[in-house]
Input
Amino acid sequence: MADSNTPVAKASPRSSPMQQISVALTVNGVRRELEIAPWTTLLDALRERLGLTGTKKGCDHGQCGACTVLLDGRPINSCLALAVMQDGSDVTTVEGLARDGTLHPVQQAFIDHDAFQCGYCTPGQICSAVGLISDGRARTRAEIREAMSGNICRCGAYPNIIAAIEEAMKAT
Amino acid sequence: MTSYIGTATSRIDGRDKVTGTARYAAEFGAPDLAYASLVTSPIARGRLKRLDVTAALKVQGVITVLSHQNRPSMADNDKAYKDQVAPRNGSPFRPLYDDGIKFSGQPVAVVLAEDLETASYAASLVHVAYDEEPHVTDITRQRYNGMALKAPAKPRGDATKAFSESDARHEADYFVPIEHHNPMELYASTAIWNDGRITVYDKTQGVQNVHGYLCGVFECDPGDIRVMSPYVGGAFGSGLRPPFQVALAVLAARAISRSVRLVLTRQQMYAIGYRPAMIQRIQLGAKADGSLNAISHDAVTSTSEYEDFHRNETTWSSLLYRSETAKYDHKLVRLDLPTGCDMRAPSAATGVYALEAAMDELAEALKMDPIELRLKCYSDRDQSNGLPFSSKNLRECYRQGAETFGWSRRNPAPRSMREGHEFIGWGMATGVWEALQMPIAVRIALTSNGHAEVSCATADIGTGTYTIMAQVAADMLGLPLEAISIKLGDSTLPQAPVEGGSWMAASVSNGIVTTSQAIRDDLLKLAQRLPGSPLKGRSGDEVVLANGAIALKTDGRDATAIADVMRSAGIDRIEREERTTFAKDDAHAHNTHSAIFAEVRVDEDIGVIRVTRVVSAVAAGRILNLKTARSQIMGGVVWGMGMALHEETLIDHRFGRMMNANIAEYHVPVNADVHDVDVIFVDEQDEFVNPMGIKGLGEIGIVGVPAAIANAVYHATGVRVRDLPITLDKLTRKA
Output
């Protein structure tokens, strides 16, 4: 829907009082090298340096889950991780889930079950759900609810989120 | 011909949202982007005495620090700062205007730097000294010092006398604390600088409201500022008025002639707007048969020291139930806080909570079933003005809701239903909201390749506006859904009101109908020029656009392909922009209604409350999209759960400061809190409210839910907690 061609992030490292450190991350299958200050979170590195704004900032304190990404396949709050500590890691964001234009089963199930309204928590919900399904420990509806409770949805789409995850679980 | 209206159509913006390509206000940028970070006041009232920016300016990468001492010029009159939604009385807050401090969390300086981390670090190095003045932030201390507001409804009869003579009486205070919207997206504005002109990507429910406000504040031409908001990460009323960050982002861009992004922290968002705390006193008197003979509803709500913000909590008890006598009172107290604002179902979420909790208590005093009592007082007319409702199928909401919930199996005695170590409680309540619509303009461009672009400066704050607009346009233009593209969230598009009050679905849908009819009439004229056209002599009302053709409405005969009509006329595009206004219907009251049934389970030993089932039966006219409509109501129910059990902004009154300004200590429902939510739309056709019979759904979902849950908690435990949220400490203290 958005129709702006404006670049999202500045490409060059900027003036900063902190010393820059070289970091290499594999993000959505692509190796990315960054000169980055040690105080930059993984979340801000993704959003402000790599232009990957699919990962959202909702609190910056690990309270809401909107910034969830998969780090070596495991869901983490990227706002609580410093980018320099993830050198050599493999990061998957919501932008990296679809394959050749085909949505990941969790993404498709979220659309089918209307598991979002405003869409802001959605990338984090989807990354958590992908992590939860591959982890395989949550089986019952109560277990899924509990495991997904680190991802706040203020629009209140929770029952639809559960329905979407249950369907995607069956499909995978 | 496919009809999309009324079906469970998936959101047309769904793919953008699940792939992360939907972009929100902080996600647009420019090569010259600078980052802003705020310094805010820790005191609630006083003056800024001294501002020391020396250390901040020494940090490498800091561009400048703006304050009231060195900012670019801003308008010097209240009118310039009054947005469309501003309270009538008062002087709107002017960010960074002078040294006055009106509330804790007020921005006093903006640090601009080359990157985000540097800006926030340097902001921590700005030293500010204040002259502090005494403040008051506690509504309970000011309860009897309020100014009287003009009563929303006329009193009827002598309610005091009737109350004293009633067979059954109930009287109590109900308290609702300050609540914050807490949308998931942080408030953000990105001002893109372009040679003196600015495009602002803003988190708002009304791009044109923000546009008008910014043009006023910065005294510039309408063409110098454009406001964009293609996606909004939740708002719930908090985006109706322009928040201070949008003015500050533009101010900063003008100061440094560069693009600027300002994203508030979650803590800073608490200084924007909130549902004000309120104390309500309700008196209900009834005859032995349950007919009401006295309603009295007094509300005390709060506003800031600089603006008079209020809504009418008492409206709802003045219209809902038949009662021989009634009286209302509303007082407004001033506190040293930012001005409150609308939050989902303003006045109804709170006013109906008090009324419907009180009705439950009255039912108990009468030893009557709560539904029976409500049916006994059921009114087909708005009791405040005697007007019949344009439609009101609340009776059916009670019936279908009760049946789905299994209400007939309820044992009315408190503490009578249990399973293992849990008490089970069943409660119900009524919900009510207004059915409104606003003037709006819609542009449609139909091209001969069978595509239509529909544009309007409205917003989709998660409500599903993109999708219902496409559905209505597809049906009206006779095109498949995929052939419709929607443009919204841009101040340069045709006029739209702010998206609020549940009025957008009705407004924009009827607007699309008007413009589609203009397109249809244009096509008809062109078609009639074709040799031997079977449509000759026919009027617009007699034809329909369907399956890419124009045809007779009666039987679809003599269809002519739209592409052929346009080709013959030598055009490849028809564009029309029409304004839709709504005839005032003074003969009816226009409302949506609902009946909510809730089941709670309360742990016998530790008092933990879980809402295990909610059934919400809603009568809201024509439903455009069963899927997004159900989600709207479900979201409202979750909000009602938060209001009943979780949400409360706490103030340390010694400092006049909000203590739990984050999303961990301000509790909102999480996934584990929400179990089964069943939404029923009862059939309700309305031929008066607007041509399409649409009533809107954004607010009605929350109304009544807090009372239904509070009533269920009483039924489970025998303990009435009237001050929200009902936390387990309150339950166990009273037990």
Remarks:
- Chain B touches chain A through 80 residues (CB under 8 Å).
- Chain B has 18 helices and 29 strands.
